[in-house]
Amino acid sequence: MTLSLTLACVWVVVATIVAFLPMRYQYAPGLALLIAAVPLLVFIGVQHGGWIVVLALLAIVSMFRRPLWALARHLTRRTGKGDP
Is 84 within the bounds of a domain? Predict the structure, then answer.
């Protein structure tokens, strides 16, 4: 297995461990995981191509679907394009 996929597997295990933490302790490691996902996706893309990146991105979005949805709501309200 390549280094990028090994790191992706480690990322998934760490994300699972963070999910077991109480909600008040999930914010900092969750944000760190979300930030670390971007260079990891680039690294996977360099080694394996676009289709594997799409699969990894779908996995990341499924794991962070609620925080990403809340962020999208917050940003749309802040820009004035969403409901008040």
Answer: no
Q: Quote the CA–CA distance of 63 and 57 in Å, as a whole number.
A: 10
Task: Say if 35 falls within a structural domain.
Answer: yes
| CA 12 remoteness from chain centre | 10
**Count of residues making up the chain:** 84
Q: Is residue 44 within 8 Å of residue 4, measured between CB atoms?
A: yes
Q: pLDDT digit string (tens) for 57-68?
A: 998 888 888 888
Q: For residue 43, what are the domain limits?
A: 3-79
The contacts of residue 50 (CB under 8 Å, 6+ apart) are: none
Count of domains for the chain: 1
Summarize the confidence of residues 2-10 as an average pLDDT.
95
User: Would you report the helix, strand and coil content of the chain in percent, each value rounded to 5?
Assistant: 85, 0, 15
